Amino acid sequence: MANSQNPTKLTDKPSVITQTAGKQQLGDFAPKFAELNDDVLFGEVWSRTDKLALRDRSIVTVTALVASGIIDQSLTYHFQEAKKNGVTRTEIAEILTQIAFYAGWPKAWGAFRQAVEVWNDSTEVSDARQQFERELMFPIGEPNTAYAKYFIGNSYLSPISTEQVQFFNVTFEPRCRNNWHIHHASKGGGQMLVGVGGRGWYQEEGKPAVEILPGTVIHIPANVKHWHGAAADGWFSHLAFEIPGENTSNEWCEPVTDEEYDKLTK
Predict the structure, then answer these.
(1) How many CB atoms lie within 10 A of CB 145?
(2) Rounded to 10 degrees, what is the CA torsion of 41, 47, 52, 58?
(3) How many angstroms separate the CA atoms of 178 and 226, rounded?
(4) Among 85, 113, 149, 249, which residue carries the largest CB count within 10 Å?
(5) Distances (CA, A) of 124 to 54, 94, 112, 154, 180
(6) Could you give the maximum distance between any two Cα atoms of the chain, in Å?
(7) Which CATH superfamily is domain 130-265 in?
(8) What are the tens digits of pLDDT across the range 124-134?
(9) Which residues in 153-235 belong to E strands, given as ranges?
């Protein structure tokens, strides 16, 4: 979830991207090149997710590779990373179509051959997300990459209001849930959730899980350990309202295990 002080900013420290391909393949032959590839390009530049999201970096990288005519295994790798970073089948098709007019038709044809293989199994997931978004009153928004390390599965974040009362639409793919976490505050604080689409779960530590449906309102007191996310059988969205308080902060804890989660689906 977004930071309780200012949810619109990527205030968490970026995760360091780990890459070892350079050292594994060229460590003995060109150790400096391997170091620059693994530690600088990926460990520093790609890891600056507080400046530019991984999804956007993937789109920029794919565009640069195709425009340069680099249609080999490195493009396949970056297609795979783009898919993991939230670029959908529909989006990559549109991106490559745009590139074709500026970088050349043959280059786009070659890139499409690889993209078809990488996104070949994505039709059902992409279509399901798009259908769910058409049924929502609020947009799904962008992949929640800044907080991906605190989620199991893919989530999306869309700011609905950033003035007066700040609140956000948070969307979870099936089975996606955030880690156990606590909204700390010495006074006031906490969070309120309002279900707006699909079916989800909310659970406080030591209590049974509560089902969230469109219209369900969940009041989360400050300093209470809890988690929330989608049910296993479909997409889910809720609005998240951060309650003002004093000395507020978020503490992210351990993930909700499959064993814990699967008990809710039986």
Answers:
(1) 23
(2) 60
(3) 9
(4) 85
(5) 23, 18, 19, 15, 29
(6) 62
(7) Jelly Rolls (2.60.120.10)
(8) 556 677 778 87
(9) 155-161, 167-172, 177-178, 181-184, 187-188, 191-198, 200-204, 210-212, 217-220, 226-230
Half-sphere exposure of 179 (CA within 13 A, CB side): 15
Domain layout of the chain by residue ranges: 21-122, 130-265
Residue-level pLDDT at 24: 85
pTM of whole model > 0.90? no
pLDDT-derived band at 12 (thresholds 50, 70, 90) equals very low
Tell me the average pLDDT across 32-40.
87
Query: Does residue 2 sit in helix, strand or coil?
Result: coil
| Phi, psi (rounded to 5 degrees) for 236 | -150, 140
Nearest-angstrom CA–CA distance, 7 and 240: 10
For residue 28, the SS3 value is coil
Mean pLDDT score across all residues of the chain? 87
Could you tell me which CATH number the domain at 21-122 has?
Answer: 1.20.1290.10
Who contacts 99 (Cβ-Cβ below 8 Å, separation ≥6)? 63, 66, 67, 107, 108, 111
Question: Residues 145, 151, 157, 163: what is their CA dihedral angle, to the nearest 10 degrees?
Answer: -100
| Residue pLDDT, tens place only, 183-198 | 999 999 999 999 999 9
**Tokens of residue 253, six digits:** 């804890």
* Token pair of 69 as six digits: 């005519």
Same fold, 21-122 and 130-265: no
- Distance, first Cα to last Cα, the chain: 27
How many whole angstroms separate alpha carbon 11 and alpha carbon 250?
11
